[in-house]
Structures are given as structure tokens and as C-alpha cells.
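Quiz preparation item.
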């Protein structure tokens, strides 16, 4: 595995492989990698000839009171994990090269970023879209893989790619979970042992709602209430939102008619966690869909 830090060198590498007719697969990350990230690398490798993973803790996507300064980092371990996963290039751009003096451009994706996480993190998705657009221009991938864990991010990137005409296939990969159901996340490292146990309530809330839908319930208010009951029964958890939305537009729905996204965010102590699953009315659809694994 090569490590590239220089953005011009990254572009030259991409140009060389494109000229040779190779398909470039790309997985952008903020590092502190876990099995969820590595599943994206495996998916990118399946769909390409050469693969790039980036690690860049993007200051633009953190709000003023968020965890940029203490975001977990372990470059040595990440580099070994990516090497073991068969990544061809680890791209490690520096903040000063990504956002040099005078940088003043942003990509704003409008409607899909206003609800869910966008409501409490109003500048987050602009930071995500801007950095991903720039990374796309540096890595020049044919295919880019994103996790369904950050479902609103995936929808935002799909929208940006369609709206701005990026010639890139955007692939959504399933959520990888711990054995007890907690979605893997770099931020799980913040959880104290009691908080880690409490964090299971997100998965239990999703499953309570899924069970109701499997039993034939279609009413969004009752389904969301079932998830909220589980979250509010956990003393260490504070719900940020629990919402049923259309998985493409992210607009709220009043009933589960086809595949519907149940998205939740909750604070466990000082750590904000998100999770989701796609629910479907078994009677209407013939099956319940779950993005969890
Ligand atoms: P991050 O490093 O948190 O910015 O995440 C980088 C990529 O990994 C994003 O596309 C995430 O959606 C994805 N990801 C994070 N956690 C998981 C998980 N548990 N399962 C699958 N993908 C994930």
C-alpha cells in the first residue's frame, strides 16, 4: 500500500490509472477505523481494479461546539488495517492543502439536508458535501462507497453527484454492527462502560419499531412512539430525534406503505449516536427490509 499526502500526487496517480483503463474505487473516512469502514473497502475493491481510502478529519463538517479537537485518531493502526484489507493507496491530505488560505467555496445540497441531523447540525452537510466534492476531484474515482449508517450523508452525496453531474457510481453499504446490535462507530470509543451498555437502546428501539411493522402496524405516530418508548426508558439516553421518512427524499411520512427509513439520533452521556433501518410493511411488500447487516 502506498501512502499519498500530496494532492497533486494523488491526482497524478489517478490520471495514470485512468489512462491505463483501470477502475478506481474510493472510500472516504475520518479514520479510527473499524470493521464497518473495512467492509466499505472490501465493497470498493469488489467494484474496481485499484482502491483508495482517505483519512481526513474534516474541520468543515464539525460545528463550533462539536468534537473536532478530540475526534479519535490512530494512524498507525488505521494504516495497518487498510494494508491488511488490500487497499492500494491511503490518501492522507493535510488540512492546509485541502483548505488553503483564501478557500471560500462550498457545496450546499438543499432539501435533504434540512431535517434529521441537519436540524441540530445546520452546517454539517455543507461541510460533508464540500469535502467529498473536493476528494472526488483529487482521487477521480469511478465508484465511491459510503455506509448506510450515515444514511442522510449517503442521500446527500447521491443528490450532489446527480445534481452536479459527477461521473461516479455511489454505492451504499450495509451497517456493520457489534454483536449486541450497536452500530459500529468511531465515536463509540467515547463511551464509558455504563454508557456502552446504555447505547444498545438505539438498536432495541429500531427493533421494537420493526416488530410493530412486522405485526401489521402502518401508522407512523404509533411506530415512532414505540421506538421513543425504548429510548426514553434508558436513563443515560436523551433522544435527539426519531423519525420515519421516505428513504429517497427524507421527507416525513405519515404511514409505512413501502420501504420507509426509521432514523434515530440520541445522546448517550456526551456522545451523540445515530442509527437507522429501512422498514417495510410485510403484508404490503411481502418482506421487511433491514439495512443492519
Ligand atoms: P466516518 O469515518 O465516520 O466519516 O465514516 C466513513 C464511512 O464509513 C462513511 O461512509 C460511513 O457511513 C461509513 N461507516 C461508518 N460506520 C459504519 C458502519 N457501522 N457500517 C457501515 N459503514 C459505516
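Solution:
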Amino acid at each position: 500500500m502506498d501512502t499519498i499526502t500530496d494532492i497533486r500526487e494523488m491526482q497524478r496517480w489517478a490520471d495514470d490509472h485512468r489512462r491505463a483503463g483501470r477502475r478506481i474505487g474510493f472510500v472516504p473516512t475520518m479514520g479510527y477505523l473499524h470493521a464497518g469502514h473495512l467492509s466499505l473497502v472490501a465493497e470498493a475493491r469488489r467494484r474496481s481494479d485499484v482502491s483508495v481510502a482517505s483519512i481526513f478529519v474534516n474541520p468543515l463538517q464539525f460545528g463550533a461546539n462539536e468534537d473536532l479537537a478530540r475526534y479519535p485518531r490512530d494512524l498507525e493502526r488505521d494504516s495497518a488495517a487498510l494494508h491488511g484489507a488490500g487497499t492500494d493507496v491511503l490518501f492522507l491530505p493535510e488540512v492546509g492543502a485541502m483548505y488553503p488560505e483564501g478557500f471560500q467555496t462550498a457545496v450546499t445540497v438543499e432539501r435533504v439536508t434540512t431535517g434529521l441531523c441537519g436540524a441540530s447540525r445546520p452546517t454539517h452537510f455543507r461541510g460533508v458535501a464540500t469535502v467529498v466534492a473536493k476528494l472526488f476531484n483529487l482521487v477521480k474515482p469511478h465508484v465511491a462507497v459510503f455506509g448506510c449508517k450515515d444514511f442522510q450523508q449517503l442521500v446527500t452525496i447521491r443528490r450532489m453527484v446527480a445534481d452536479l453531474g459527477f461521473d461516479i457510481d455511489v454505492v451504499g453499504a450495509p451497517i456493520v454492527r457489534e454483536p449486541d446490535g450497536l452500530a459500529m462507530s468511531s465515536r463509540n470509543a467515547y463511551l464509558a462502560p455504563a454508557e456502552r451498555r446504555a447505547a444498545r437502546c438505539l438498536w432495541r428501539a429500531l427493533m421494537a419499531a420493526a416488530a410493530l411493522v412486522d405485526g401489521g402496524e402502518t401508522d407512523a405516530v404509533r411506530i415512532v412512539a414505540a421506538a421513543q418508548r425504548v429510548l426514553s426508558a434508558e436513563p443515560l439516553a436523551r433522544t435527539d430525534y426519531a423519525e420515519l421518512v421516505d428513504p429517497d427524499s427524507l421527507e416525513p411520512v405519515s404511514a409505512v406503505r413501502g420501504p420507509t427509513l426509521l432514523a434515530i439520533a440520541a445522546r448517550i452521556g456526551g456522545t451523540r449516536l445515530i442509527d437507522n433501518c429501512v422498514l417495510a410493511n410485510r403484508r404490503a411488500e411481502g418482506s421487511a427490509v433491514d439495512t443492519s447487516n
